[in-house]
Amino acid sequence: MPALLAAVLVLGACAALPQIRPLEPSLRSAALDACRRPFLTEKYRLVHALNAVMPGDRESGAVGVLIADPRTGSFQSVLMTIEGFVLFDIAYAQGLSVNRAVPPFDAPAFAPRMAEDIGLAFFSPGGKPAAWGRMETGETVCRFERPGGEFVDVMSGESGALEIRLYGSGKELKKRVSIPRVERPGLADELEIQGAGWPSYRLHLRLIEAERVED
Amino acid sequence: MRAARNLRILIACPTGLLLALLLLLPSSPVRAESWEAFREAAGRIKSVEAQFVQKKTLPILAKPFISSGRFFYQPPGSLRWEYERPVGSVLMMHGGNVKRYLREKNAWREDASAALPAMQTVLEEIVHWQQGRFDANPHFRVSFVENPEPRVILVPKEDSWRKMIRQIELTPSREQAGVIKSVRMIEDERSFTVLEFSRVRLDRPLPASLFLRVE
After folding, report:
1. ipTM of this model?
2. Which residues of A touch B87 (CB under 8 A)?
3. Model pTM above 0.90
4. Which residue from A184, B5, B89, B164 has the highest number of Cβ atoms inside 10 Å of its Cβ?
Protein backbone atom coordinates (compact mmCIF):
# COMPACT_ATOMS: atom_id res chain seq x y z
CA MET A 1 0.00 0.00 0.00
CA PRO A 2 2.76 2.54 0.85
CA ALA A 3 4.44 1.59 -2.45
CA LEU A 4 1.22 2.24 -4.34
CA LEU A 5 0.79 5.58 -2.60
CA ALA A 6 4.36 6.52 -3.42
CA ALA A 7 3.80 5.57 -7.05
CA VAL A 8 0.67 7.71 -7.21
CA LEU A 9 2.51 10.65 -5.66
CA VAL A 10 5.44 10.27 -8.04
CA LEU A 11 3.11 10.03 -11.05
CA GLY A 12 1.13 13.02 -9.81
CA ALA A 13 4.30 15.03 -9.36
CA CYS A 14 5.38 14.11 -12.88
CA ALA A 15 2.02 15.02 -14.46
CA ALA A 16 2.28 17.59 -17.21
CA LEU A 17 -0.20 19.30 -19.46
CA PRO A 18 -0.36 17.95 -23.01
CA GLN A 19 1.81 19.91 -25.37
CA ILE A 20 0.22 22.35 -27.77
CA ARG A 21 1.73 22.94 -31.18
CA PRO A 22 1.29 26.32 -32.85
CA LEU A 23 -1.63 26.68 -35.21
CA GLU A 24 -1.43 28.14 -38.70
CA PRO A 25 -2.65 31.78 -38.46
CA SER A 26 -5.45 31.16 -40.98
CA LEU A 27 -7.01 28.54 -38.65
CA ARG A 28 -6.89 30.54 -35.42
CA SER A 29 -10.25 32.26 -35.75
CA ALA A 30 -12.07 28.98 -36.49
CA ALA A 31 -10.30 27.30 -33.58
CA LEU A 32 -11.41 30.02 -31.18
CA ASP A 33 -14.99 29.77 -32.45
CA ALA A 34 -14.94 26.01 -31.89
CA CYS A 35 -13.72 26.56 -28.34
CA ARG A 36 -16.83 28.61 -27.56
CA ARG A 37 -19.33 26.10 -28.96
CA PRO A 38 -19.74 23.84 -25.89
CA PHE A 39 -20.89 26.74 -23.71
CA LEU A 40 -24.10 28.63 -23.18
CA THR A 41 -24.22 32.19 -24.44
CA GLU A 42 -27.64 33.03 -22.95
CA LYS A 43 -29.60 32.14 -19.86
CA TYR A 44 -31.29 28.78 -20.39
CA ARG A 45 -33.45 26.27 -18.61
CA LEU A 46 -32.32 22.75 -19.47
CA VAL A 47 -33.89 19.44 -18.55
CA HIS A 48 -31.68 16.38 -18.87
CA ALA A 49 -32.11 12.66 -18.40
CA LEU A 50 -29.12 11.61 -16.33
CA ASN A 51 -27.43 8.29 -16.09
CA ALA A 52 -24.67 8.05 -13.48
CA VAL A 53 -22.14 5.24 -13.38
CA MET A 54 -20.28 4.91 -10.09
CA PRO A 55 -17.42 2.58 -9.07
CA GLY A 56 -18.31 -1.06 -9.56
CA ASP A 57 -20.38 -0.09 -12.63
CA ARG A 58 -23.31 0.77 -10.38
CA GLU A 59 -25.77 2.76 -12.48
CA SER A 60 -28.54 5.06 -11.47
CA GLY A 61 -30.92 7.33 -13.34
CA ALA A 62 -32.41 10.72 -12.57
CA VAL A 63 -33.80 13.86 -14.14
CA GLY A 64 -31.86 17.08 -13.81
CA VAL A 65 -33.19 20.61 -14.22
CA LEU A 66 -30.73 23.46 -14.63
CA ILE A 67 -31.20 27.19 -15.01
CA ALA A 68 -27.83 28.62 -15.94
CA ASP A 69 -26.88 32.21 -16.71
CA PRO A 70 -23.50 32.51 -18.43
CA ARG A 71 -23.47 36.30 -17.98
CA THR A 72 -23.29 36.00 -14.19
CA GLY A 73 -22.05 32.44 -13.83
CA SER A 74 -25.02 31.75 -11.56
CA PHE A 75 -27.20 28.67 -11.72
CA GLN A 76 -29.85 26.66 -9.95
CA SER A 77 -30.08 22.91 -10.30
CA VAL A 78 -32.50 20.26 -9.12
CA LEU A 79 -31.95 16.52 -9.29
CA MET A 80 -35.00 14.31 -8.96
CA THR A 81 -35.89 10.70 -9.44
CA ILE A 82 -37.87 9.73 -12.51
CA GLU A 83 -40.85 9.37 -10.16
CA GLY A 84 -40.50 13.05 -9.23
CA PHE A 85 -38.91 12.89 -5.79
CA VAL A 86 -36.48 15.80 -5.41
CA LEU A 87 -33.14 14.51 -4.17
CA PHE A 88 -30.96 17.54 -4.49
CA ASP A 89 -31.47 21.26 -4.98
CA ILE A 90 -28.58 23.70 -5.15
CA ALA A 91 -28.01 27.25 -6.29
CA TYR A 92 -24.89 29.20 -7.02
CA ALA A 93 -24.78 32.99 -7.12
CA GLN A 94 -22.33 34.71 -4.76
CA GLY A 95 -21.68 31.33 -3.20
CA LEU A 96 -23.02 27.81 -3.24
CA SER A 97 -26.22 27.11 -1.29
CA VAL A 98 -27.81 23.71 -0.77
CA ASN A 99 -31.59 23.98 -0.50
CA ARG A 100 -32.26 20.26 -0.23
CA ALA A 101 -30.05 17.19 -0.07
CA VAL A 102 -31.47 13.74 0.51
CA PRO A 103 -28.92 11.12 1.63
CA PRO A 104 -26.50 10.16 0.11
CA PHE A 105 -26.47 13.50 -1.71
CA ASP A 106 -25.94 15.29 1.62
CA ALA A 107 -22.25 14.33 1.67
CA PRO A 108 -20.27 17.60 2.02
CA ALA A 109 -18.21 16.95 -1.12
CA PHE A 110 -21.19 16.32 -3.40
CA ALA A 111 -22.45 19.88 -3.89
CA PRO A 112 -19.04 21.42 -4.79
CA ARG A 113 -18.33 18.56 -7.22
CA MET A 114 -21.68 19.00 -8.90
CA ALA A 115 -21.22 22.77 -9.09
CA GLU A 116 -17.83 22.21 -10.70
CA ASP A 117 -19.37 19.80 -13.23
CA ILE A 118 -22.02 22.34 -14.18
CA GLY A 119 -19.51 25.16 -14.50
CA LEU A 120 -17.16 23.03 -16.57
CA ALA A 121 -19.80 21.71 -18.96
CA PHE A 122 -21.93 24.84 -19.52
CA PHE A 123 -19.90 27.98 -18.76
CA SER A 124 -16.97 29.23 -20.80
CA PRO A 125 -13.76 29.06 -18.73
CA GLY A 126 -12.77 32.58 -19.77
CA GLY A 127 -12.65 35.20 -22.46
CA LYS A 128 -9.32 34.77 -24.13
CA PRO A 129 -7.34 31.56 -23.83
CA ALA A 130 -3.84 31.62 -22.39
CA ALA A 131 -2.75 29.46 -25.32
CA TRP A 132 -4.26 27.77 -28.31
CA GLY A 133 -3.06 25.50 -31.06
CA ARG A 134 -3.17 21.85 -31.98
CA MET A 135 -2.73 18.74 -29.85
CA GLU A 136 -0.40 15.91 -30.77
CA THR A 137 -3.52 13.93 -31.57
CA GLY A 138 -4.71 16.51 -34.11
CA GLU A 139 -7.50 18.33 -32.29
CA THR A 140 -7.46 22.10 -32.06
CA VAL A 141 -7.30 23.27 -28.47
CA CYS A 142 -7.78 26.42 -26.40
CA ARG A 143 -6.13 26.42 -22.99
CA PHE A 144 -7.56 28.58 -20.23
CA GLU A 145 -5.87 29.25 -16.94
CA ARG A 146 -8.03 29.35 -13.82
CA PRO A 147 -7.36 30.77 -10.38
CA GLY A 148 -5.53 28.33 -8.14
CA GLY A 149 -3.29 27.02 -10.88
CA GLU A 150 -5.91 24.91 -12.64
CA PHE A 151 -6.21 24.68 -16.41
CA VAL A 152 -9.10 23.99 -18.75
CA ASP A 153 -8.52 22.67 -22.27
CA VAL A 154 -11.31 22.91 -24.81
CA MET A 155 -10.62 20.60 -27.73
CA SER A 156 -12.33 20.28 -31.06
CA GLY A 157 -11.91 17.37 -33.46
CA GLU A 158 -12.51 17.24 -37.19
CA SER A 159 -15.64 15.14 -36.66
CA GLY A 160 -17.20 18.00 -34.70
CA ALA A 161 -16.74 16.22 -31.38
CA LEU A 162 -15.70 18.45 -28.51
CA GLU A 163 -13.92 17.70 -25.28
CA ILE A 164 -13.36 19.83 -22.20
CA ARG A 165 -10.63 18.79 -19.78
CA LEU A 166 -10.00 20.14 -16.32
CA TYR A 167 -6.47 19.82 -14.97
CA GLY A 168 -5.72 20.35 -11.30
CA SER A 169 -2.97 22.54 -9.90
CA GLY A 170 -0.66 19.52 -10.04
CA LYS A 171 -1.46 19.25 -13.79
CA GLU A 172 -3.35 16.02 -13.15
CA LEU A 173 -6.48 15.37 -15.21
CA LYS A 174 -9.45 15.89 -12.87
CA LYS A 175 -12.46 15.88 -15.16
CA ARG A 176 -13.35 15.36 -18.75
CA VAL A 177 -16.53 16.40 -20.61
CA SER A 178 -17.13 14.66 -23.95
CA ILE A 179 -19.62 16.13 -26.41
CA PRO A 180 -20.19 14.13 -29.59
CA ARG A 181 -21.61 17.17 -31.39
CA VAL A 182 -23.35 20.42 -30.67
CA GLU A 183 -25.67 22.33 -33.02
CA ARG A 184 -26.32 25.40 -30.84
CA PRO A 185 -23.88 26.75 -28.23
CA GLY A 186 -24.27 24.97 -24.93
CA LEU A 187 -27.19 22.86 -26.11
CA ALA A 188 -25.64 19.49 -26.85
CA ASP A 189 -28.13 16.68 -27.27
CA GLU A 190 -25.79 14.45 -25.31
CA LEU A 191 -22.71 14.88 -23.20
CA GLU A 192 -20.71 12.83 -20.75
CA ILE A 193 -18.84 14.06 -17.69
CA GLN A 194 -16.14 11.88 -16.19
CA GLY A 195 -14.62 12.58 -12.79
CA ALA A 196 -11.22 11.06 -12.15
CA GLY A 197 -11.02 11.62 -8.38
CA TRP A 198 -12.42 9.29 -5.74
CA PRO A 199 -15.07 8.17 -6.14
CA SER A 200 -14.67 8.22 -9.89
CA TYR A 201 -17.88 8.57 -11.84
CA ARG A 202 -19.33 8.91 -15.30
CA LEU A 203 -22.39 11.03 -15.84
CA HIS A 204 -24.27 10.81 -19.12
CA LEU A 205 -26.70 13.64 -19.89
CA ARG A 206 -29.37 13.53 -22.59
CA LEU A 207 -31.11 16.81 -23.30
CA ILE A 208 -34.90 16.57 -23.01
CA GLU A 209 -35.93 20.23 -22.99
CA ALA A 210 -34.14 23.53 -23.60
CA GLU A 211 -35.81 26.88 -23.12
CA ARG A 212 -34.29 30.35 -23.19
CA VAL A 213 -35.07 32.26 -20.00
CA GLU A 214 -35.88 35.95 -20.17
CA ASP A 215 -35.02 38.01 -17.11
CA MET B 1 -70.06 9.74 16.78
CA ARG B 2 -68.80 10.92 13.41
CA ALA B 3 -72.24 10.43 11.88
CA ALA B 4 -73.81 12.51 14.64
CA ARG B 5 -71.33 15.32 14.02
CA ASN B 6 -72.01 15.20 10.27
CA LEU B 7 -75.73 15.35 10.98
CA ARG B 8 -75.30 18.47 13.14
CA ILE B 9 -73.37 20.13 10.32
CA LEU B 10 -76.06 19.20 7.79
CA ILE B 11 -78.85 20.62 9.91
CA ALA B 12 -76.92 23.85 10.44
CA CYS B 13 -75.96 24.21 6.80
CA PRO B 14 -78.43 23.72 3.92
CA THR B 15 -75.55 23.89 1.43
CA GLY B 16 -73.98 20.98 3.22
CA LEU B 17 -77.26 19.12 2.92
CA LEU B 18 -77.31 19.74 -0.84
CA LEU B 19 -73.74 18.53 -1.19
CA ALA B 20 -74.53 15.49 0.88
CA LEU B 21 -77.47 14.70 -1.44
CA LEU B 22 -75.17 15.06 -4.44
CA LEU B 23 -72.74 12.66 -2.85
CA LEU B 24 -75.53 10.19 -2.40
CA LEU B 25 -76.28 10.08 -6.13
CA PRO B 26 -75.58 6.72 -7.79
CA SER B 27 -72.83 8.24 -9.97
CA SER B 28 -70.69 8.43 -6.87
CA PRO B 29 -70.03 4.84 -5.80
CA VAL B 30 -67.20 5.90 -3.46
CA ARG B 31 -68.99 8.03 -0.89
CA ALA B 32 -67.05 9.66 1.88
CA GLU B 33 -68.74 7.50 4.45
CA SER B 34 -67.99 4.31 2.59
CA TRP B 35 -64.22 4.00 2.74
CA GLU B 36 -64.76 0.57 4.15
CA ALA B 37 -66.68 -0.20 0.96
CA PHE B 38 -63.73 1.12 -1.04
CA ARG B 39 -61.45 -1.22 0.86
CA GLU B 40 -63.77 -4.15 0.23
CA ALA B 41 -64.01 -3.32 -3.48
CA ALA B 42 -60.22 -2.92 -3.70
CA GLY B 43 -59.81 -6.24 -1.95
CA ARG B 44 -61.86 -7.98 -4.66
CA ILE B 45 -59.69 -6.64 -7.49
CA LYS B 46 -57.53 -9.35 -9.06
CA SER B 47 -55.37 -7.04 -11.18
CA VAL B 48 -55.04 -3.44 -12.35
CA GLU B 49 -53.64 -2.17 -15.63
CA ALA B 50 -53.58 1.54 -16.34
CA GLN B 51 -51.94 4.32 -18.29
CA PHE B 52 -50.65 7.25 -16.30
CA VAL B 53 -49.49 10.80 -16.80
CA GLN B 54 -47.21 12.34 -14.20
CA LYS B 55 -46.97 16.12 -13.89
CA LYS B 56 -44.13 17.46 -11.78
CA THR B 57 -44.36 21.08 -10.71
CA LEU B 58 -41.31 22.86 -9.30
CA PRO B 59 -40.34 26.52 -8.87
CA ILE B 60 -37.40 25.95 -11.21
CA LEU B 61 -39.74 24.80 -14.01
CA ALA B 62 -41.79 27.21 -16.12
CA LYS B 63 -44.33 24.48 -16.84
CA PRO B 64 -44.86 21.03 -15.32
CA PHE B 65 -42.46 18.31 -16.41
CA ILE B 66 -44.64 15.61 -17.89
CA SER B 67 -43.88 11.91 -17.98
CA SER B 68 -46.13 9.06 -18.99
CA GLY B 69 -46.23 5.32 -18.85
CA ARG B 70 -48.08 2.22 -17.68
CA PHE B 71 -48.92 0.79 -14.30
CA PHE B 72 -49.67 -2.81 -13.35
CA TYR B 73 -50.69 -4.23 -10.01
CA GLN B 74 -51.56 -7.71 -8.90
CA PRO B 75 -52.30 -8.68 -5.30
CA PRO B 76 -50.85 -9.43 -2.89
CA GLY B 77 -47.81 -7.29 -3.70
CA SER B 78 -46.72 -7.28 -7.33
CA LEU B 79 -46.20 -3.94 -9.06
CA ARG B 80 -44.78 -2.71 -12.31
CA TRP B 81 -44.38 1.06 -12.67
CA GLU B 82 -43.16 1.71 -16.19
CA TYR B 83 -42.18 5.12 -17.56
CA GLU B 84 -42.18 5.26 -21.33
CA ARG B 85 -41.55 8.98 -21.98
CA PRO B 86 -39.40 11.02 -21.84
CA VAL B 87 -37.15 8.75 -19.77
CA GLY B 88 -37.55 4.99 -20.01
CA SER B 89 -37.61 3.30 -16.64
CA VAL B 90 -39.21 0.21 -15.15
CA LEU B 91 -39.62 -0.24 -11.43
CA MET B 92 -40.80 -3.69 -10.41
CA MET B 93 -41.70 -5.27 -7.10
CA HIS B 94 -42.47 -8.96 -6.70
CA GLY B 95 -42.20 -11.10 -3.59
CA GLY B 96 -40.75 -8.14 -1.70
CA ASN B 97 -37.86 -7.70 -4.14
CA VAL B 98 -37.51 -4.38 -5.93
CA LYS B 99 -35.63 -3.83 -9.17
CA ARG B 100 -35.36 -0.87 -11.43
CA TYR B 101 -34.17 -0.78 -15.01
CA LEU B 102 -33.23 2.25 -17.07
CA ARG B 103 -33.46 2.49 -20.82
CA GLU B 104 -30.21 3.75 -22.28
CA LYS B 105 -29.98 3.90 -26.07
CA ASN B 106 -32.62 1.20 -26.58
CA ALA B 107 -31.00 -1.18 -24.09
CA TRP B 108 -32.14 -1.84 -20.52
CA ARG B 109 -29.60 -1.54 -17.72
CA GLU B 110 -30.22 -2.35 -14.10
CA ASP B 111 -30.28 0.62 -11.76
CA ALA B 112 -28.31 0.18 -8.55
CA SER B 113 -28.93 3.61 -7.07
CA ALA B 114 -28.85 4.27 -3.37
CA ALA B 115 -32.44 5.49 -3.67
CA LEU B 116 -33.72 1.95 -4.35
CA PRO B 117 -34.44 1.05 -0.69
CA ALA B 118 -36.48 4.24 -0.44
CA MET B 119 -38.37 3.24 -3.57
CA GLN B 120 -39.21 -0.10 -1.94
CA THR B 121 -40.93 1.84 0.85
CA VAL B 122 -42.82 3.87 -1.74
CA LEU B 123 -43.90 0.79 -3.68
CA GLU B 124 -45.08 -0.95 -0.52
CA GLU B 125 -47.08 2.15 0.27
CA ILE B 126 -48.67 2.07 -3.19
CA VAL B 127 -49.66 -1.55 -2.58
CA HIS B 128 -51.34 -0.49 0.66
CA TRP B 129 -53.29 2.17 -1.23
CA GLN B 130 -54.30 -0.29 -3.90
CA GLN B 131 -55.70 -2.45 -1.14
CA GLY B 132 -57.48 0.50 0.49
CA ARG B 133 -55.25 0.16 3.57
CA PHE B 134 -54.58 3.86 3.88
CA ASP B 135 -53.74 3.58 7.57
CA ALA B 136 -51.16 0.83 7.13
CA ASN B 137 -48.18 3.16 7.42
CA PRO B 138 -47.76 4.28 11.06
CA HIS B 139 -45.77 7.34 9.95
CA PHE B 140 -48.86 8.95 8.38
CA ARG B 141 -52.04 10.37 9.84
CA VAL B 142 -55.07 9.58 7.67
CA SER B 143 -58.15 11.70 7.15
CA PHE B 144 -60.98 11.69 4.64
CA VAL B 145 -62.19 14.79 2.87
CA GLU B 146 -65.54 14.95 1.12
CA ASN B 147 -65.36 18.18 -0.86
CA PRO B 148 -64.94 19.13 -3.60
CA GLU B 149 -64.58 15.40 -4.19
CA PRO B 150 -63.83 12.47 -1.90
CA ARG B 151 -60.15 12.23 -1.10
CA VAL B 152 -57.86 10.48 1.32
CA ILE B 153 -55.32 12.79 2.92
CA LEU B 154 -52.11 11.37 4.35
CA VAL B 155 -49.95 13.67 6.47
CA PRO B 156 -46.62 12.60 7.96
CA LYS B 157 -46.65 12.52 11.73
CA GLU B 158 -42.97 13.25 12.22
CA ASP B 159 -41.03 16.39 11.33
CA SER B 160 -38.32 14.34 9.64
CA TRP B 161 -40.91 12.98 7.18
CA ARG B 162 -42.60 16.36 6.75
CA LYS B 163 -39.30 17.79 5.52
CA MET B 164 -39.57 15.36 2.61
CA ILE B 165 -43.28 15.35 1.95
CA ARG B 166 -45.97 17.58 3.35
CA GLN B 167 -49.08 15.72 2.25
CA ILE B 168 -50.34 12.99 -0.05
CA GLU B 169 -53.84 13.13 -1.52
CA LEU B 170 -55.49 10.09 -3.07
CA THR B 171 -58.63 10.52 -5.13
CA PRO B 172 -60.75 7.44 -5.80
CA SER B 173 -62.42 6.82 -9.13
CA ARG B 174 -66.13 7.58 -9.28
CA GLU B 175 -66.61 5.10 -12.08
CA GLN B 176 -64.63 2.11 -10.82
CA ALA B 177 -65.09 1.07 -7.21
CA GLY B 178 -61.86 0.32 -5.35
CA VAL B 179 -59.70 2.15 -7.89
CA ILE B 180 -57.57 5.24 -7.26
CA LYS B 181 -57.95 7.87 -9.98
CA SER B 182 -55.15 10.23 -9.02
CA VAL B 183 -52.37 10.77 -6.51
CA ARG B 184 -51.04 14.18 -5.53
CA MET B 185 -47.81 14.35 -3.53
CA ILE B 186 -47.10 17.77 -2.08
CA GLU B 187 -43.56 18.65 -1.05
CA ASP B 188 -44.34 22.32 -0.42
CA GLU B 189 -46.60 25.05 -1.79
CA ARG B 190 -44.74 25.19 -5.10
CA SER B 191 -43.43 21.66 -5.45
CA PHE B 192 -45.76 18.77 -6.07
CA THR B 193 -46.33 15.73 -8.24
CA VAL B 194 -49.67 14.67 -9.70
CA LEU B 195 -50.21 11.18 -11.10
CA GLU B 196 -53.40 10.70 -13.11
CA PHE B 197 -54.48 7.24 -14.13
CA SER B 198 -56.58 6.49 -17.20
CA ARG B 199 -57.76 3.55 -19.30
CA VAL B 200 -57.92 1.44 -16.17
CA ARG B 201 -58.64 -2.22 -16.84
CA LEU B 202 -59.40 -4.58 -14.00
CA ASP B 203 -59.16 -8.28 -13.36
CA ARG B 204 -57.41 -9.32 -16.55
CA PRO B 205 -54.90 -12.14 -16.06
CA LEU B 206 -51.38 -10.73 -15.97
CA PRO B 207 -48.32 -12.88 -16.64
CA ALA B 208 -45.90 -13.19 -13.72
CA SER B 209 -43.08 -12.19 -16.08
CA LEU B 210 -44.51 -8.67 -16.11
CA PHE B 211 -43.28 -8.27 -12.53
CA LEU B 212 -40.03 -10.16 -12.97
CA ARG B 213 -38.60 -9.20 -16.32
CA VAL B 214 -38.08 -5.81 -17.85
CA GLU B 215 -39.21 -7.00 -21.30
Report:
1. 0.86
2. 49, 61, 63, 82, 208
3. no
4. B89
